[in-house]
Amino acid sequence: MNGIIRRSLVAACLAVAATACLAAEAVKVVYHVNEGLEQASNALRNIRNHLSVDPGAKIVVVTHAGGINFLLEGAKDKNGNPYDAMVDELSGKGVEFRVCNFTLKSRNLDPKGVHPEAKIVPSGVAEVSRLQAQERFAYLKP
User: Does residue 6 sit within a domain?
Assistant: First the structure.
């Protein structure tokens, strides 16, 4: 009988430890931006708000199609403000930006014109699905 109780206590302790580890894991979110500057502005505002209540969140912004525009050299919002400052601010808080290489190639854009904080990935859609399936990121599309 002692063996059964001991095994039950060990199993219970392991379950509690596993739950504590999961609870301590940071929230991971991929923001999917593919529709242009208005969507990018919404995404950046959402991310800023997100981090204000959960500063430990792991956030990756994946862009393709028109969504890459705010990460291109000289990009400005509808009020004429450059996106660089916001991207730099969020990068400083750990937000990662990723740009689809297929989009760059299809639009004949030089990768040197992409914001220096952004990482170029082979495919934006493949990156979104990889983050969701393999790294357990939640999906948000502003």
Answer: no
Residue-wise burial string across 40-70, b where 16 or more C-beta atoms lie within 10 A, e elsewhere? bbebbeebeebbeeeeebbbbbbbbbbbbbb
pLDDT in tens, 91-117: 999 999 999 999 999 999 999 999 999
Range of the domain at 87: 26-140
Question: How much is the pLDDT for 25?
Answer: 79
Residue at 123 is within a domain: yes
CA distance 27 to 57: 5
